[in-house]
Amino acid sequence: MKLRLTLPWKHAPLDCEAVMRQLWDYLDNELTPERMEAIREHLAMCARCYPQFDFEREFLANLSRLRLEHSNPKMLRERVVAALQRSGFGEADI
Amino acid sequence: MSSSDPKTLKDRQFVDEALRCLPEVARYALSLARRESDADDLVQETFLRAYTAWPSYEVGTECRGWLFTICRNVFLRSRKHDQRQVACEDAELESLAAAALHASATQSGLGDLFTRIDLAPALERALLDLPETFRDVVTLVDIQDESYAVASEVLEVPVGTIRSRLFRGRRLLQKSLLEYARDAGLARTAGDSFDPEVTT
After folding, report:
1. pTM of the predicted model, to two decimals?
2. Which of A30, B11, B62, B109 is 20 to 30 Å from B153 at the Cα level?
3. Quick one: residue B196, left, alpha or beta (phi over 0 = left, psi -120 to 50 = alpha)?
4. Are A66 and B15 an interchain contact pair (Cβ–Cβ within 8 Å)?
5. Would you list which residues of chain A are within 8 Å, Cβ to Cβ, of chain B?
6. ipTM score of complex
């Protein structure tokens, strides 16, 4: 599907393939501000690309939920410091 | 010992720059090891090695990335290396392949898979099955939320390589999840291949 827009663009509109090529860069916020804006505008108006964007965004959200937090960071720090002290560390005020 | 003593100064700098990063290193170690007891060993060994190597560290540079690199190297040495060879160079082709995969998923009634069921156990398994080359990048960027630049520094490869490995890794994970969903009877059609070829 090609976009046929008459809006006054600040920059050349992107076609779907160009958006697909950079969709993950866009989701990772790794593009220039101008390119981010161009893709955002395209996605807001393109019924073909938006479902793919949504699919990838949800996939990445699932992945980020695999991030684990330590259950007892204080104890871990104490363990690390104790091990360091056995290696000669320990004069500094910690 | 006075506070200007070289040893005291070294320890002070180590606290200020390295130990300050302990929570982030712990999170990264957990992402790699996936089990807290293993991650604790990994974190301890990382800081012991960092302390030994501290004289070679340039104070004020990117300490967190340096610690991540040590952590990853310790992790890799602690387990058998994954020797699977991978070929993947074109990040944008990977992006287009992902689009084809999405189309295939939609045709199979799995377009909403990632919001429909709890995929965490399947995703954990798929991540562990991923070749190390891809898992490294996915762990740093998608789980640790690091930028391509930081991943490039930690893994000591160019940003372009980070992109292509990341995108391939994501696509392989998606393919595993879609196959898992199909095997679980969640797809509308059975036996579809989720391995689209993309040509330009």
Report:
1. 0.79
2. B11
3. beta
4. no
5. 17, 20-25, 28, 30, 51-52, 55-56, 58-71, 73, 76-77, 79-81, 83-84, 87, 89-94
6. 0.78
